[in-house]
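Aim 2 progress. For suppressor OF G protein BETA1, the working sequence is reproduced below.
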Amino acid sequence: MPMRGRHDAYSMYKRGTRDHAFDAYDKEQGSERLLTGVSKDIGNPSWKRSLPHVVVATLSSFLYGYHLGVINETLESISRDLGFHGNTMAEGLVVSTCLGGAFVGSLFGGLIADGVGRRRAFQLCALPMIIGASMSATAKNLWGMLLGRLFVGTGMGTGPPVAALYVTEVSPAYVRGTYGSFNQIATGLGLLSSLFIGFPAKEIEGWWRMCFWAPVAPAAMLALFMEFCAESPHWLFKRGRGVEAEAEYEKLLGGQYVKSAMAELSKSDRGDDADTFKFSELLYGHHRKVVFIGSTLFALQQLSGINAVFYFSSTVFKSAGVPSESANMCVGIANLLGSFVAMILMDKLGRKVLLIGSFSGMVVAMGLQAISATSLVSRSSAVYLSVGGMLLFVLAFALGAGPVPSILLSEMFPGRVRANAVSICMAFHWMVNFFVGLLFLRLLELIGPLVLNSIFANPTGLSIRKIRTLLNDVDRSGKNTFTLQAPCKFYEQLLCCLLGY
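Predicted C-alpha cells for this construct:
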C-alpha cells in the first residue's frame, strides 16, 4: 500500500503539472513551439545560455575521439614493448577490445541516463575512462592493455548516446543541429590531439604510456564540471519534478521562456508515462521500425570503413611509403574542417542533404583509393591518389555521415523511449565497429587494398539511393520528430542495401 500511495501521488502531481502547463499554453495564443523559437513577440531564446552546458557535455565526445585515435601512432611501440609485434590479430584486439567494451556500455547507457539523469550518467561514464586509461598506461603485457582498453570502452559506449540526448534536450531548436555538430567537432579535436601527442612515440621509448595518461585530465574535468551544469528538463519532468524542470529552463533559456517551455514539454509528454515503458516496445512494438532505421544508418556509417582510417592510417600510409606523421595530421585536420562546415550547414540545408552528399563524396574517395592500388597509374600518382582519396573520404564523412545519424536519433524518438532507443542503435554501431577494427589489418594483409576498398564502397554507394527515398528532413521549424516516407516499403530495401544486394 505505501508503494501504491507514492505512485498515485506521483501520478496526481504529474497530471497536475501537465494540466497547469496546458492552461498556460492555451493562453499563449500567439506563441510558437518553445525550442523552435518560442513566441514571435519575444523572439528566440539566447543560444549563449545553453552553450556552456553543451561544451561541457562534448568533453565526452572529445574523449571518444581521443581514445579512437590514440592507438594510431602508438600501436607499433606498444606491440614492441608488450611483445606482440607482427601479430595482426593481437594488434586488432587492442583496438576491438575497446569497441567490445563500448558495445556493453551502450547497451546500459539508456538505462543509466533514464535512471540517474543525464548529468550523473556523464560522471559515471568518466569513471571507467579514468580507470581504464590508467590501467593501459601502466600495462606490463598484452592482457593488461586489453583490460584497460575494455574499461575505457565501457565509458566510450555510455558517453556518446548521453551526449546526443543531452544536447538535444537543452538546446533551442533553431541551433540544435549546430550544437549537435559540436559532438563531431569535439570528436575531431580529440582525434587530432591523440595524433599530435602520439608523434614522439616512435622516437621516445615508453612515450606511448604518456599518451594514455593524457586523457585522464579531461575525463576528470567532465566529472567535475558536470556537477555545475543543468540537468535535462525533459528528464526532470518525466520523473515528476516539474518545479526543478522550470528552474533548469530558466537557467538554459531565460525566465521569459519558461512558461512556453513547460507548456511545450507538457504537450509533447501528453499520454506518456515513464512507468509504462517496456524494453520490448523497441524490439517488437511500434518503435521497432524507427530503431531499425537508426541502427541501419549506423551500420552504413561503420561499413564505410571510416574508423579503420582513424585506427590504422599510420599502417596504411607506411605501406604506401608516405610519412605517417604529416599524413595523419592532415587526416585530423580534414575531419575537423568537415565538422565545422557541417556545423554551419546543418540547420540550413537539413540532415538529408548532408547525409546524401556525404555518402556520395565517400564513394568517390574510395574509388580514388581503389584506382591507386591498380596498375593503371604510376607509383608516384598512386601515392597522391591514395592519400588524396583518404583525405577526401574523411572530409566527406565529417560533413554528414559522422554527425547526422546521432542528431537524427535524438530527434526521431519520443522522450519516453529516447534514451533506451538511442542506446540500442549505438550498440549496433559498436558491434559493426568491433568487427571492422578486429579484421581490417588481417583483410588488408590477405586481400589487399583494391578489393578491401571495393568491399567498403559497395554498401556505401547503395545507401545513397535508399537514404534519398527513406528520410525526410527534420522540420526546420524545430519539430522533435521527422517523417519517414512510406516506411514499411523501405525497411526491406534498407536491409538489402546493408547486405549489399
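The chain has 21 helices and no strands. This observation will guide construct design in the next reporting period.
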